[in-house]
Structure formats: C-alpha cells, structure tokens
C-alpha cells in the first residue's frame, strides 16, 4: 500500500514565498522584508503570484517526503522529475531475500491473475536466492584465496553476490524513497502526475503529497493539481473526458 509522509519542510513556507515576492515588487530592505506581512497580506501575495504566473519566488521553499509501498516501476517514473533530490533503498546493498512486491489493482481483481502473479514472484524470489548462493560460494573462495579468513570472506562475498543477483528482481519489487522538491517543482509534478492519465501508482503518490502540503501551505497550493484544474486538458485525443469530475475531486480535497 502506498504511504507518503511529509518528513520536513521550510518553516513558514507561505511567509517565505511572500517575503521573496515582496522584494521583487517593493523597495524593502532585506531586514524589513517581513514587516507588514500579516496572514492576510501573505495570502494575497501568494495568490497574486499564482494569478500572474510568477513562479520563481516559490522555489525558495521545499518539502521532503518519505514514500514507501511503491514499486520500482513507480520510482523509475518519480525520478524522471529531475529538479529534485532522491535517496532510495539500494538493491545493491540491501538483501532482497523474500522481497515485498506491489500487485496492480487490475491483477488483484482477477483471482486467477493474482494467483499467477504471486506464483511468478515466488519463482523470482527462489531464483534470486539460488543465484545469490552460487555467487556467494564463488566469491568466498576467491576472497579466501586472497588471504581473508573464512568469516570475513563469506561476509564480503554475500554483499558482492547481491550486486549481481538483483538483476533478477522485477519492477513489482517494493522500494522506499525520500524525495525533496521545491514548491515550483511540486506544482509541475502535480500537473503531470495528478492527472487521470498518469499511471495509477504514481497518481496515488501525487495525491497523497498534495494532501500533505495543503495542510501546511493551503494558499500556496490552492490551485495545484492536474493541468485541467486551472485550465484546459493538455492530453488532446488522449483525454480521460472527465474534466468536471476531476475538478470536483480536487476542489473537495482543498
């Protein structure tokens, strides 16, 4: 199950954005940049930025999320958003013996398909274990020949073995990742990944992220969501055709 946690964020994010915006449009000194920024004026500044499309001030605040229960297929999509920072569980250093995996909802709906999916995952897991054992045995011999004691040789061999055994692991393999994005990158992420046309798993990640940032910066993310929330659908002939339903969904979220 997809789970997203907001681990950290810039303190007083909307105030920081408003201060940066104020500097652009007034003669304020740096020391006095926050003077007069009441909650009402802060909200007004943030709303103005959205209306005129001035997005650079919102780059000054960032949000860090912990994401778990997603597949490698999902994380490969996530890291394509390049103006961000990522730290992901390594399959090179973490043994994936008896790995967890994600079952797509459409597979879950068909008992026979789910049964076959699980059977294949078990088969891959067995293959992973067998390959790791074979490689460990080979590497242990090599390390002992180099002069290492048996215990140290075996420990190093196991670590080296999983580096190659991981090539058997499927896209369904569960992973965990820490993600940091500034607000502008998040807006772009939401436009693409909250869309009904996005893959179901990363859409769930995006929706959970949006819910979390709305709690700490509701004015900043008031217009966030898929492109059709604040404009037309960019998907052309590929549109989901449910623009009214989508707009209502994100309206209720906020």
Rg (CA only) = 24 Å
Structural class, judged by helices and strands? alpha+beta
Counted up, domains total: 2
Amount of beta strand: 5-15%
Instruction: Count the beta strands.
Output: 4
Helical run tally: 10
Can you tell me about this structure?
The protein has a 4-stranded antiparallel beta sheet with strand order 1-2-4-3. The protein is 52% helix and 12% strand. It is an alpha+beta fold. The chain has helices at residues 13-25, 39-52, 72-78, 105-108, 111-145, 150-165, 183-193, 200-216, 227-230, 243-253, and strands at residues 3-9, 62-71, 85-88, 174-182. The radius of gyration is 24 Å and the shape is flat. The mean pLDDT is 93. The chain has 2 domains: 3-89 and 174-253, 2-Layer Sandwich (Gyrase A, domain 2), CATH 3.30.1360; 110-168, no CATH class.
Topology (elements, then pairings):
Layout: E1 3-9, H1 13-25, H2 39-52, E2 62-71, H3 72-78, E3 85-88, H4 105-108, H5 111-145, H6 150-165, E4 174-182, H7 183-193, H8 200-216, H9 227-230, H10 243-253
Antiparallel strand pairs: 1-2, 2-4, 3-4
Which descriptors would you attach to this protein?
alpha+beta, 2 domains, Gyrase A, domain 2, 254 residues, 10 helices, 52% helix, four-stranded antiparallel sheet
Brief summary:
52% of the residues lie in helices and 12% in strands.
């Amino acid at each position: 199950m997809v789970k997203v946690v907001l681990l950290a964020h810039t303190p007083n994010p909307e105030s920081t954005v408003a201060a940066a915006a104020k500097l652009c449009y007034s003669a304020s000194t740096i020391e006095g940049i926050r003077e007069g920024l009441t909650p009402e004026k802060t909200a007004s500044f943030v709303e103005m930025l959205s209306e005129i499309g001035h997005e650079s001030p919102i780059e000054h605040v960032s949000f860090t999320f912990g994401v778990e229960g997603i597949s490698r297929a999902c994380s490969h999509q996530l890291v394509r958003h390049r103006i961000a920072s990522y730290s992901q569980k390594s399959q090179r250093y973490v043994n994936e013996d008896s790995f967890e995996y994600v079952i797509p909802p459409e597979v879950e709906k068909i008992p026979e398909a789910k049964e076959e999916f699980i059977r294949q995952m078990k088969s891959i897991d067995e293959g992973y274990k067998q390959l790791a054992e074979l490689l460990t045995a080979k590497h242990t011999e090599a390390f002992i020949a180099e002069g290492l004691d048996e215990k140290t040789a075996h420990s190093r061999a196991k670590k080296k073995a999983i580096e190659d055994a991981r090539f058997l692991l499927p896209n369904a393999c569960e992973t965990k990742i820490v993600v940091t994005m500034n607000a502008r990158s998040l807006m772009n992420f939401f436009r693409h990944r909250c869309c009904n046309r996005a893959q179901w798993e990363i859409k769930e990640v995006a929706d959970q992220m949006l819910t979390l940032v709305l709690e700490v910066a509701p004015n900043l993310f008031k217009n966030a969501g898929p492109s059709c929330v604040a404009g037309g659908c960019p998907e052309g002939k590929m549109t989901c055709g449910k623009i009214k339903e989508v707009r209502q969904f994100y309206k209720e979220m906020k």
